[in-house]
Amino acid sequence: MSLEFSAQVGVRGFDVSLPVAAGETVAVLGPNGAGKSTLLTVLAGLLRPDSGRAVLGDRVLFDLGTGGRGRWLPPHERGVSMLAQDALLFPHLSALENVAFGPRSRGVPRAEARRRATAWLERVGVSELAARRPAEISGGQAQRVAVARALASEPELLLLDEPLAALDVSAAPAVRRMLRDVLADRTALVVTHDILDAFTLADRVVVLEAGCVVDLGPTRDVLDRPRTRFAAGLAAVNLLIGTVTAAGVVRADIRMPPGEAAPDIRARFLGDLAAGDRAGVCIRPSAVSVSVAHPTDADAAPIHSGPRDPALTHPRAADPEQTMLPVTVTDLEPRGDLVRVRAGDVAADVAPGRVADLDLAPGVHAWFGFAAADAIAYRL
Amino acid sequence: MAVAAVGAAFVLLPLVAMVTRVNWAEFVPLVTSESSLDALGLSLRTSLTATALCVLLGVPMAVVLARTEFWGQRILRSLVLLPLVLPPVVGGIALLYTFGRRGLLGQSFEALGVTVAFSTTAVVIAQTFVALPFLVLSLEGALRAVGTRYEAVGATLGARPTTVLRRITLPLVVPALVSGAVLSFARALGEFGATLAFAGSLQGVTRTLPLEIYLQRETDPDAAVALSLVLVVVAVVVVAAAHQAGRSGGARLRGPS
Amino acid sequence: MLRTTRRRAVLAFAVLGAAAVVVLSGCAAGGAAQPAATVPGSEAPSASASGLDGLITVFAAASLKGTFTELADEFEAEHPGVSVELVFAGSSDLVTQITEGAPADVFASADERNMAKLVDEALITPDAPVDFATNVLQIAVPPTNPQGVETLADLAAAGVATVVCAPQVPCGAATAAVESAAGIDIAPVSEESSVTDVLGKVTSGEADAGLVYVTDVTAAGDAVRGIAFPESAEAVNVYPIAPVADGRNPEVAVAFIDFVTGSRGRAVLGAAGFGAAGTETAP
């Protein structure tokens, strides 16, 4: 079922329009308070927007004019199931009865409902728990039962609100794979904070910020070429935004001391970009090198990191293909065998030994350098 | 700790004092006299009926108070709880002006040939009136504590509101419903003032155990003490049963932990 | 505490009112024509008025509250040096209190049985009690008298909702007596544990009729109508009064009893519905 959605909730500053194609799973990303939960509760029929319209297949979920009057389908008539962070299994019913609840509520005879419930429990891999009460099963198992319950009601739209967030790290991967299988050709919205969920489960992502859609597109596009700091943060890439000044050059929107020009970023352009265009430049932290003296100083050896072509990692001083950004280190964060050196919104991954050699610490002035080939610029 | 001990003594000592005054030699004849058995039987019958009425009326009230919002709801809640703080005699007088022969509704009942005055029905009405707040209060609290999340899930699974109420909301608050009903029963059993003022006192019809105790006190203090002990025992059994029900109900929801 | 305060007030009053006594005793002289007191050893009221002072405590049956409060006020006004403290409760409760040592100078009972208890306890001399009032049952009906009740027998008719006192309490015993005298069997809709509760059921209109004391009907005013019936003479409640043997102020106690049994006392009691003692014992 395809979904057309548009709604406004004044008090929450929520104004979102979103189309979802039939069989498509869309990941909803965004910082806390961006309106992700509002989107789901409006769709589920638990929150009435001030105005808007939603059509699922050929069923009008709501069609409200200004003032909130108009058509409003109650939750149980929508064919929209919701799966929350907590499994919220009915504590007084067994796992099987929980799953059979949806079919029973839609008038399916008891025996048939139980048969369907058994099949769904098998499908999510917990058929042995059928007779157990929710208090007797683990979090990961409960979430599987909840998935079975949501799907057993045969929803035309499935809403998942951080379905893996409450699971411990050992249980999440298996449930994620199970979700990937069952969501394969379903119309679904998945609210998540986890980029892995977005890549695994979703065909497209939508990024909400402050109640509005700020980015929307295929998962890989949005996360590889982020348009927002939030998406860049999720994808763990550096995003610099600026204006194209010449071919291969973007002047970054970085505040500089008076009298100093903002740095020019040398980048590889994707698509048509002309002078004056707004552009985003995406650089992976592993492609950023760190040095403590200006690279033009004769005896300063720029420090690089990451397993890259030596030709690119040893830029000569004033190399036109190399961008050098003056930064102040704000934070050092160990990450496995690398250390992420943060300087405001920009980060570089370097080897621990180099951090020691350079005596890096918060407050230290340094240079972040990267090659044009690693800086991908695209139109915003 | 010491204050708690004083508090416990304050509650227990009068009971102990009463037990010391029981005429054990005569105890069995005293509590098995015809009037005593009539009073006990009537009390149990009326209290059970009143409890059933409390559940019937109180569940919808609690659901409405806990799950909806409307103008004047706070005032309504205070009014519903009024019998809790009202002196029972005042409740009796109020009931008299409602269900009495010249009361607001009593006149209509009279026209239909239904007489409430001096009937067992009047006893049940008085008991329901004073016991209802206990059920509403405990159930509303439980409904608020349970929250609406399970109900929302049920609705998105396609259950209409009545199904949600029947299969989710009420089963979730069964422990509170049971303990509320038991409290109501205990309150109905002990009802005295409103019954005296509203229903009268006639053996086998309106003279419940507390009224019998009050009357026996005039001529036969031994019988009054013996019957008081019976009432205390019934109350203790009921409260213990409620506690047990609440615990097992809670355990059922929480599971072994 | 109360006692101390009142005594002090009384003393002050006695000093200030030294001259007034003469004037007031002049007023009391109007009552000098009253018949001589029947209590042995008592003196004429006019004689005692000039020399009486001090405090007495009167223990009186609850049904005497209105009349005795009025009479005590009048008595104090007549005897400026005297202060009367009143304690009202059920007669049997008062007997218990006096037996337990409560300081009482006068005991006024609602029945002879409770008075006899104190005589048995030697707290009252056997020939001391004097009957000062009687009370009989009356049918109380709502002012509209919906069932047209006129006689005691009407109460036994089907369809008449009658409320009576339970047999365990004194007014219930009196009810049983008049029933057997009339040869009828009332099937009450309720047997209340006090006369007040019976009256309440009638005034509220719940009951068509109730059996209460005539004084209760009088006190209820327009709220109920009283219907006298001849069988009431079978259960006359006699109110005796007597000084308590070890009272601290026997002189004033006797004077108060004389006042209650005197013409003023009879007038006040009569207005409240009480019958005069000694005249209605005959059927």
Structural overview:
The complex is a heterotrimer of chains A (380), B (257) and C (283). Chain A has 10 helices and 23 strands. Chain A is α+β, with helices and mostly antiparallel strands and 380 residues long. Chain A folds into 2 domains: 3-227, Rossmann fold (3-Layer(aba) Sandwich); 236-380, RNA polymerase II/Efflux pump adaptor protein, barrel-sandwich hybrid domain (OB fold (Dihydrolipoamide Acetyltransferase, E2P), Beta Barrel), CATH 2.40.50.100. In chain A, the strands form 5 sheets. In chain A, strands 7-8-9-3-10-11 form a 6-stranded mixed sheet, with helices on both faces. In chain A, helix 3 (110-123) crosses helix 4 (139-152). Chain C has 283 residues and is of the alpha/beta class. Chain C has 11 helices and 10 strands. In chain C, helix 7 links the parallel strand 6 (162-165) and strand 7. In chain C, helix 2 (20-28) runs antiparallel to helix 3 and helix 5 runs parallel beside helix 6. Chain C is elongated, with a radius of gyration of 21 Å. The N and C termini of chain C lie far apart (49 Å). Classes of the chains: A alpha+beta (380), B mainly alpha (257), C alpha/beta (283). At the A-B interface, strand 7 and helix 2 of A face helix 9, helix 10 and helix 14 of B.
Helix and strand topology:
The complex is a heterotrimer of chains A (380), B (257) and C (283).
Chain A: E1 3-9, E2 14-20, E3 25-29, H1 36-44, E4 51-56, E5 59-64, E6 70-72, E7 80-83, H2 95-105, H3 110-123, H4 139-152, E8 157-161, H5 172-183, E9 188-191, H6 195-201, E10 204-209, E11 212-218, H7 219-224, H8 229-235, E12 238-246, E13 249-252, E14 264-266, E15 268-269, E16 278-283, E17 289-291, H9 310-313, E18 322-328, E19 331-335, E20 338-343, E21 346-350, H10 352-358, E22 365-371, E23 376-379
Parallel strand pairs in A: 3-9, 3-10, 7-8, 8-9, 15-23
Antiparallel strand pairs in A: 1-2, 1-4, 4-5, 5-6, 10-11, 12-13, 12-16, 13-14, 16-23, 17-22, 18-22, 19-20, 20-21
Helix pairs in contact in A: 2-3, 2-4, 3-4, 4-5
Chain B: H1 2-20, H2 24-31, H3 34-67, H4 73-80, H5 82-85, H6 88-99, H7 106-111, H8 120-146, H9 149-156, H10 161-172, H11 174-190, H12 193-198, H13 209-219, H14 221-254
Helix pairs in contact in B: 2-14, 3-8, 3-11, 3-13, 6-8, 8-11, 9-10, 11-14, 13-14
Chain C: H1 2-16, H2 20-28, H3 45-51, E1 54-61, H4 65-78, E2 82-89, H5 91-99, E3 106-108, H6 112-120, E4 130-135, E5 137-141, E6 162-165, H7 170-182, E7 190-192, H8 195-203, E8 209-213, H9 214-220, E9 225-227, E10 237-243, H10 250-261, H11 263-271
Parallel strand pairs in C: 1-2, 1-3, 6-7, 6-8
Antiparallel strand pairs in C: 3-10, 4-10, 5-8, 5-9
Helix pairs in contact in C: 2-3, 5-6
